[in-house]
Structure formats: structure tokens, C-alpha cells
């Protein structure tokens, strides 16, 4: 059974650019959630995808968008990057009917 | 809406001493409660969870937590800590009735175990 994997592990982008982060969910999991963790803070819920549809969204602007694919993997896209978007982005997968979310190692995004 | 307050941002403790990390939550609905640990430059690992039943729950690495509904608290404890327990600890809640596992996290407590 493979765990949650995220790619890339690190990347640096310039303000105004666009970025795509990727997540492969744990085997058997059909739900993927994305979180933003700024330095020194707890993770903040961005949105969740279930069966390829957005299924809940936190307090993030529309320039944060996502996709979920038929194999349950997911992408997080951020347009018009701002300096404050610099953070660790965490992906978590889970399955309906269960209580636990499993987290990946995260992608460290630095916006300069 | 839910919120989580972790009362201590940093907790230094000597090796083999007991430790308690405090967590209070606020919610208008019934919740599930979780504690996660994060080692440097890594993701989150689940330590333990409270879903229902006994209010004392045991987790991995010798940690336990007690759910207190009247005080809306879920404090994490370990009777004897090791150097390897040095990490950031996060308390989190999710809505029982909501879709799977939209977690609301506290701001974290940095546990530093001193030799």
C-alpha cells in the first residue's frame, strides 16, 4: 500500500507566475484535501475534492483552484502568485466512511 | 464554524519528564478530535483520535489524550518524554456530520525535549 506522495518537494516561483502542485492519494482513497501551512502556523484548509468535484472550500480566493482525476490523484493550481503564497502545501487523502486523513510530505513553495 | 486554541506555543521539558500539551476547541456541532505530529520538513502524522466512547484515548509513541466535553478540551499527555519527541504538535477538529475530514487546526505547540 503506497502512501500519499506530493511533487515537487520544493520550488521557487516569481510573483505573478502560476504554479501547479501534484498529489497522488493513498491506494483506496477517493477524497483529497489541500492545506496551506505558512511558516510558524497550523495548516489552513484550502479545498477538498471527491469524485472529481470540489466538495468544500476554505477561505481562499478563486486564484486557488484544483482538479481531481479518475485515479483520485489531484492538482492544486495557484495563479498570479503573491509573496504571501509562500508556504508548505500539504495534500491529504481519505476515504468516505473513515475518520482519518493521511498526509503527504508537502511541497515547499517560495515566491520571490 | 470551529476553532482550535493551543494554549502554549512552546513547551520545553527535560528528558524522561512528563508533559502535557493543551488544546481547547469551539464548535456548534459535535466534532471528532485529533492530534498530529510534524517533524522538521515533513508532513503530518496522526498520533491519536477521539471519535466516540471512552474519553481517554491512547495513540502511538506512548501518547494519550483525554476528551473533556464540559471544558471542550483535548489535552495531550506523555508520562516520560524522549529526545526523539521533539517536534511540532497540532490539535485538530472535524465536523462529524461534514464530508470526510475537513480539518481545522490549532496554531501548534513546539515541544522541545532537553537532555
Question: In terms of topology, how is this protein built?
Answer:
The complex is a heterodimer of chains A (112) and B (115).
Chain A lengths: L4 E3 L2 E4 L5 E6 L6 E7 L6 E7 L2 E5 L6 E5 L5 E5 L8 E8 L7 E2 L3 E5 L1
Parallel strand pairs in A: 2-11
Antiparallel strand pairs in A: 1-3, 3-8, 4-5, 4-9, 5-6, 7-8, 9-10, 9-11
Chain B lengths: L1 E5 L3 E5 L4 E3 L1 E5 L3 E8 L5 E7 L5 E3 L5 E5 L4 E6 L8 E9 L8 E2 L3 E6 L1
Parallel strand pairs in B: 2-12
Antiparallel strand pairs in B: 1-4, 3-9, 5-6, 5-10, 7-8, 8-9, 10-11, 10-12
How would you sum up this structure, described in words?
- The complex is a heterodimer of chains A (112) and B (115).
- With 112 residues, chain A is an all-beta fold.
- Chain A has strands at 5-7, 10-13, 19-24, 31-37, 44-50, 53-57, 64-68, 74-78, 87-94, 102-103, 107-111.
- In chain A, strands 2, 4, 5, 6, 9, 10 and 11 form a 7-stranded mixed beta sheet that branches.
- Chain B is mainly β and 115 residues long.
- Chain B has one domain: Sandwich (Immunoglobulin-like), CATH 2.60.40.10.
- Chain B contains no helices and 12 strands.
- In chain B, strand 7 (56-58) and strand 8 (64-68) form a beta hairpin.
Amino acid at each position: 500500500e503506497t502512501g500519499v506522495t506530493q511533487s515537487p518537494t520544493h520550488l521557487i516561483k516569481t510573483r505573478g507566475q502560476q504554479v501547479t502542485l501534484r498529489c497522488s492519494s493513498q491506494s483506496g482513497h477517493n477524497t483529497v484535501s489541500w492545506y496551506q501551512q505558512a511558516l510558524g502556523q497550523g495548516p489552513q484548509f484550502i479545498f477538498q475534492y471527491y469524485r472529481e468535484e470540489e466538495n468544500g472550500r476554505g477561505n481562499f480566493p478563486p486564484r486557488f483552484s484544483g482538479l481531481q482525476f479518475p485515479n483520485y490523484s489531484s492538482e492544486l493550481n495557484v495563479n498570479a502568485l503573491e509573496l504571501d503564497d509562500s508556504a508548505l502545501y500539504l495534500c491529504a487523502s481519505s476515504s468516505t466512511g473513515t475518520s482519518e486523513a493521511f498526509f503527504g510530505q508537502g511541497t515547499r513553495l517560495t515566491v520571490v | 464554524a470551529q476553532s482550535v486554541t493551543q494554549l502554549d506555543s512552546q513547551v520545553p521539558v527535560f528528558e524522561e519528564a512528563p508533559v502535557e500539551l493543551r488544546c481547547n476547541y469551539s464548535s456548534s456541532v459535535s466534532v471528532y478530535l485529533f492530534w498530529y505530529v510534524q517533524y522538521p520538513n515533513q508532513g503530518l502524522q496522526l498520533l491519536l483520535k477521539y471519535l466516540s466512547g471512552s474519553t481517554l484515548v491512547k495513540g502511538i509513541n506512548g501518547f494519550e489524550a483525554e476528551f473533556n466535553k464540559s471544558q471542550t478540551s483535548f489535552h495531550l499527555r506523555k508520562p516520560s518524554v524522549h529526545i526523539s519527541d521533539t517536534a511540532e504538535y497540532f490539535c485538530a477538529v472535524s465536523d462529524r456530520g461534514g464530508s470526510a475530514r475537513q480539518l481545522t487546526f490549532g496554531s501548534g505547540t513546539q515541544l522541545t525535549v532537553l537532555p
